[in-house]
Amino acid sequence: MELDSNNHSVFSLHYHLVLVVKYRRKVIGDEISNRLKEIFEYIQPKYNITLQEWNYDKDHVHVLMKAYPNTEISKFLNAYKSASSRLIKKDFPIIRKQLWKEYFWSKSYCLITTGGAPMDVIQKYIETQGQK
């Protein structure tokens, strides 16, 4: 197992995050997924987060990310969901017709630590999302 470190600690903090589109609307395709990923990559350094794997289905995204002990996950999630919601609706105005309120993401999300499963199993799972 590869460990990360900083001045005072050694750690391995990986999270599997699932974000769901409001009302489970099926609005995510390649172009929107790529834009959502760009926004994620832009915001992640401010919160000591590193994207490991990204994939999507039509109504949700799967993210495997690495964090530091001082990472404030809930603040990152709020910042990401707010910024990505605003930017996606600006860049893809057609989405406003399918999501009639101000939100792109559901308030709920799933965040799981990945300590129990081997990383390659989780990566494979995320890679195969949306495939039949």
From TrEMBL:
Q: Which Pfam families match?
A: Y1_Tnp (PF01797)
| Superkingdom of the organism of origin | Bacteria
Instruction: Specify the Transposase IS200-like domain's residue ranges.
Output: 10-129
NCBIfam families for the chain:
transpos_IS200
How is this protein named in the record?
Transposase
Q: Which organism is it from?
A: Paenibacillus helianthi
